[in-house]
Amino acid sequence: LSTLFIEWLYSRLTRYMEVTLVDVEATKWSAESIKFVSDKGIMGGYEDNTFRPKNKITRAEAVTTLSRVSK
């Protein structure tokens, strides 16, 4: 139970922290939108500070994103 609480607390604390995503170039047409969803905690990056915008979204990522948007 304590592990779940720590994970929940960590997700809340880091939700609004600004993260620099190394694979999102500021000049790309999608950069502003990616920054918005990242800053709002709707979508995040991966552990290696990448967003991987060219990858297809997984079912789990889609469900997580929809859950965060609905709050």
Overview of the structural elements:
- The chain is mainly α and 71 residues long.
- The protein contains three helices and no strands.
- The protein is globular, with a radius of gyration of 13 Å.
- The model has no long low-confidence stretch (mean pLDDT 82).
Number of strands: 0
Main sheet attributes: strand count, strand direction, barrel closure: none
As a percent range, the share of helical residues equals 40-55%
Instruction: Determine the mean pLDDT.
Output: 82
Backbone shape: globular
Distance between the termini: 24 Å
Order of helices and strands: HHH
Structural class: mainly alpha
Number of helical elements: 3
**Uncertain regions: pLDDT < 50 for 5+ in a row?**
none
Radius of gyration: 13 Å
> How much beta, percentage-wise?
under 5%
List keywords for this structure.
single chain; 71 residues; mainly alpha; 3 helices; 0% strand; globular
In short:
With 71 residues, the protein is mainly α. The protein has helices at residues 2-14, 31-39, 59-69.
Give the SSE map.
Layout: H1 2-14, H2 31-39, H3 59-69
